[in-house]
Amino acid sequence: MQSPHSRRRRRPRPRSVARRRAVAAPGPRRYLPGPLIRGARWARAAFRRISRDRHLDAVHEGACRPRGGARLRAGGGPLSGEPEWRDVDTREGYDRWASTYDVEGNPLLALEEPEVDRSLGDVAGLDVLDVGAGTGRHAIRIAAAGARVTALDFSEGMLARGRTKPAADRVRWLSHDANRPLPLPDRSFDRVLSALVLEHIADPVPFLRELGRVTRGDGRIVVTAMHPAMFLRGVSARFRDSETGEFLRPRSYVMQLSDYVMSAIRAGLAIVTIAELTPDEGLAARVPRAEKYVGWPMLVVMVLRPG
Question: What is the mean pLDDT of the chain?
Answer without folding.
Answer: 77
